[in-house]
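Supplementary Note 3. Input sequence used for the single-chain structure prediction.
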Amino acid sequence: METEIAETGTTWLTEDEQRAWRIHLDVSRLLMYQLERDLQPFGLTNNDYEILVNLSEADERRMRMSDLAKSTLQSKSRLSHQITRMEAAGLVRRENCESDRRGLFAVLTEQGWDTMRQVAPRHVASVRAHFIDLLPPAALAAYHEALTPVAAHLREERGKV
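The predicted structure, written as discrete structure tokens, is reproduced below.
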């Protein structure tokens, strides 16, 4: 291993760092899989739910498509396809932006709002059962404290793109 460090200039992960990284990956994948599975009876994906949350919390339950793409970390093209599927399901609609003819809004429909009100309590119960309630309050606080600088760094990096 020493030779690899000299040859590549890479500082390899220590055993403790490797364990922490791998458990993070494992929990991230397993948790998102489980949350998605718990949304399936409602015909929703994690991406659908994230869009519904963003729209339900926005003024007038609407967001510019470009802002929604940024908020959900999706390309404009991918979001457009996602919104098309959600429009077909009656959850959202697109509206033209009067102040900017090129701009479009994604708007939560009444059916989308009803779906959100029905799904949100079950989603929160799923988050509790598979994450929050498994950690003691001190560990949850430490987890938040530990990951806050990582999230801040990644948001800053995202802004550079």
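The first strand starts at residue 62 and ends at 64. The radius of gyration is 20 Å.
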